[in-house]
Request: fold
Amino acid sequence: MTKINALLLSATLLAMPLAVSGQAQAQQDTKDAPAAGGVAASAAEKQICKKDKEIGSRLASKKVCRTKAEWDEFYRQQRAETEQMQRNDMATKTPK
Reply:
């Protein structure tokens, strides 16, 4: 029984700094964050950067930065183009 108590005590002591640092981080985030209306606007305007690989090269890539709304629109357009190509491909392969 004492080994179990010692394990529980050590697990609790190890977890306490994590919980305290999480609370401190949450408090810091609330201090840095503007009013609720400003949070939504800044999150929508935040730039998200991704690496775009160059076709024909294993090493070359370029950095592309867009807002979340722009990335959503980009992926929506890519999906629409893919579906269109698939529909066109199926139209040419219909049985006669």
Strands lie at 47-53, 61-67. The chain has a mean pLDDT of 74.
